[in-house]
User: What shape does this take?
Amino acid sequence: MLWLGVETSCDETGVALVEEEEGRTRVIGALLASQISRHRPFGGIVPELAVREHARNLPVLTARLFEETRFAPRELGGIAVTEGPGLASSLLIGNAYARAMGAAIDLPVFGINHLEGHLFSPFLEGEEPISFPFLGLVVSGGHSLLASVEGWNRYRILSSTSDDAAGEALDKIARLLGLPYPGGPEIEKLASRGNPKAFPFPRGFPEKGDLRLSFSGLKTAVRYFLARHADECRDPAFLADVAASLQESVVRTLCEKTLWAAASGGFRILAASGGVLANRRLREALEAGCRELGLLLRIAPPALCTDNAVMIASAAALKSAAGLPASLREDIDPGLPL
Ligand code: KG4
Ligand code: ZN
Assistant: This one.
């Protein structure tokens, strides 16, 4: 069965075609229109700009997707759309588009939770099927969360964002460092030339067994640190050391809490995704930690870690194949929990 996925929860317009057969999915085609260059002059996402871009991109991308894959809308079996969490106006336009398309060609529309899309994206490549239970780690611009995933729709939250999500903190810290939006990849680039042990930046709730995920303290610490060292901030080598050290604080926090949750919960599989998991240092640290613990690590490839429509179409396809009926909320929900 062929599924169209539509993702517009934030500042990326994504559409994808995914084919499902016997509970396995295959990507037929995927297109993504990044709005980064449009938002960059403002140092962050401007919701009104995002929604206008989505409105412009959606019909163009969908037409191109069908043209390039040589499929036609009448061959679709279902449409999947992100119904939350995210920016209200961005979610609304994607939902209006998907519903209109569903009505026009008489197809069911499946609402998918954006976090659920991230949660299962590590399983979209490779031969291994999804195996429950697993420990899910999602770290993005809006969320940091650890969940015990016991089956479809059976998600037990072990820890979630206490204040700033890790990606949000990185984006805000990048601004303090004079780096453009989005800050995560920029900090990673700068950090590659720096010493991660140069400065001992604080870690939120570092005590063993404390799963709270907090990154606003790090942001504040970096702000005061930079103010105290204003003169040195003109030295690129100093800034590289700052970037490497603060990245290390985020990586160690995420790794230690995740590995502790995995070991204490008796998990055998860790599935990690979300934009921040595109970070090479974090991927390597998790790989090393999982090897040591004998834990199987499934990690989404970088292109599927950041927002995309493949994960939305696939989640709908797999849920539908597992016998869950298509459901769509009456309205989008910007604060939709997992
Ligand atoms: O999952 P995502 O694309 O969107 C949300 O659902 O929020 O995540 C975006 C976040 C941004 O905060 C961005 O700075 C961060 O992921 N990010 C990274 C990297 N690539 C994206 N953070 C660290 N290192 C990266 N390479
Ligand atoms: Zn996301």
Q: What stands out?
A: The two ends are 26 Å apart (CA to CA). The pocket of zinc ion (ligand 2) is lined by residues 114, 118, 140, 275, 307 (CB under 6 Å). The chain has a mean pLDDT of 96.
